[in-house]
Write a structure and sequence with these properties.
about 160 residues, 7-stranded mixed beta sheet, globular, alpha+beta
């Protein structure tokens, strides 16, 4: 594997959408009912992906020329001291091989990540353990999924004097 992570380009929207939808159908289907999978797929059309990329900094992970994962970071509700991670997906056959970690590390080193005192991520039932392994903790100590479908996790920078 020759894995690289680069900034998203508009021409990537269709391929990224297809990768997200495949990941949702395979990886998330074990944790969610078919109706919710359909909702997730509808929320990740090429048009939505392109729009999300314009609202923040989207990256793609590639194995050679093949897009195998994606992730986005942007300001949290316009904040300059808080950011949020969105659209984090890795194709099923690449999961568990360090690709997701590379995406998260890239997002945390992005300007939105560096300036943030706190980074939040709405974590799926499928991904919560992955994010917890990377140092994200339950926001406000709430360990139950919001509306039964996602956890709110966060990572705070250590306070320095």
């Amino acid at each position: 594997m020759n894995i690289t992570v680069r900034r998203f380009e508009k021409a990537d929207a269709g391929v990224v959408s297809a990768a997200v939808c495949e990941t949702v159908r395979v990886s998330n289907a074990k944790d969610y009912p078919p109706e919710y999978i359909d909702v997730l797929i509808a929320q990740h059309s090429p048009e939505v992906i392109a729009e999300r990329a314009e609202q923040g900094h989207m990256y793609v992970a590639c194995d050679g020329d093949r897009i195998i994962g994606t992730g986005t970071i942007t300001g949290y509700w316009g904040s300059t001291t808080e950011s949020i991670l969105l659209t984090i997906f890795v194709l099923p056959e690449y999961q568990g091989k360090g690709v997701g970690r590379r995406i998260i590390e890239t997002l945390e080193q992005d300007e939105y990540g560096k300036r943030a005192n706190r980074i939040e991520i709405p974590a799926s039932l499928t991904g919560v353990h992955f994010y917890r392994h990377l140092g994200y903790d339950y926001k406000d100590g709430i360990t139950e999924p919001e509306d039964g479908v996602m956890y709110r996790l966060e990572k705070r920078k250590p306070v320095t004097d």
